[in-house]
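Dear colleague,

Thank you for sharing your sequence with our group. We've completed the structure prediction you requested, and as agreed, I am returning the results in plain text so they can be pasted directly into your records. Please verify that the sequence below matches your submission; if there's any discrepancy, let me know and we will rerun it promptly.
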Amino acid sequence: ERLSRTHIARVVRQHPPVAVAGVFVAAAMRRIMESALLAAGLAVTMAETEYEQSETFMGQDFFEPFRWSFHTAEDPTHGTVDYLGYATAAIQGLVNATADRIYMGADHTSIIDSGAGRRRTTSEGGPRGRPSVRIMSRQSYNGGLFILSLDHMPTGCGVWPAFWMYGEDPEHIWPTWGEFDIIEGVHDANRTMTTLHTTGGDCDQAEVHKDKQFTGKWLDGLDKKADNCDVNAKGEWANQGCSQGGPVGSMGRSFNEAGGGTFAAEWDPEGGHFRTWFWPAAQGPPEDVSAHKPQPETWGMPYSYFKLSEDQCNKDHFKDMHLVFDITFCGDFGSPTFAGGCPEVAKQMTCEEFVEKHPENFTEAYWSLRGLDVYQAIRPVNLADFPGGPLQAQPQHRQWPDVYGRFGVPVDTFGEDTFPHGQVFAPEPPTATPSQAPAGDAGATPAPTKQPPAQAVPDGM
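Please find the predicted structure tokens below.
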């Protein structure tokens, strides 16, 4: 039999040495345990990283202010969108939470007049674009395993949704603390993009190879594959970062028609990687995921892999990152790809005009979540570390940070976004097929500022 150091660490955490004599007691425990193990002929081995659930976001309290803040400032990616606070979004039917479903969508009934198809800024007054939502977790993280189950995600011409993470505060403006885009796409893309964004040129993923470390594909940059995470990397589109494409059916209409699926995104700075997996609904996730005891090492090769190492991409590029859901329209990614992604519509009008004047085309612009769980790693402990102090898993996240938006824009207000215990819930949307969204629901906005070719959606999308 084998006794893992992780198990030993759990025992010691449950019965820690007293503080006064901690060093001596711990040292004695170490000697006793080593002697006992050797006498019994047991091998103390390093175990695979284990994960324990730290949070689950489902339930009627999903939108409570201690969990998420609503972005109500202008869209930093210049989308034709008007982000609403919680109260307004709930009244308009754009957000809803029940025990087993979370709905976030965009308006699909209103004709918007922001000035002849031109995005209007807040200072000009009037609507900024199609009403939608963008939310950011209060909690920030420095690693973890994030598992999201969906039965629908936003799609359609002009639509740019994303589920992603980023870090920022007033002294560390994006992307100083990095960005990890888990799910992102535009228009009618049928496969997700998974991407890292950093500063500096020292986060190069050129040594990461398809079919050796991941099953997806590198997306194309200007004149090379997009394998450098620097937002200003040569040979890549502005803010493209290092970007990999997921499997067909991991995004868009094909994803929705197949009943959705489950994504698992692992950010493991100690293990030295970002890894992401996808399981379509028909296949279902592994049993250990359903049992809330995930074991990533048993899942096979991920569709996306990025390496973290001191000489290739230092883990310090990523810090205190928050979870974000959003749905925006057009903007820095959707507008330059509109002609390539929606050629027939683009012959008649701009992306902005289409978004403002044709609400009937945005019934598919909504997220429908069936599960969102966060897990933190339990690190195997070396027995040689016992005398050094208490043994306990170090928390890899902190709560209630100062919350700022990308480029330093505050995302929180204390007006309609703040509501105490009497949370207002919109009526439960009726069951919807992929071709018919619940009345009053729609999408949210992403924030990565990518600019791929002006006349075509990136290869493989």
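Summary note from our side: The chain has a mean pLDDT of 80.

Kind regards,
the structure core
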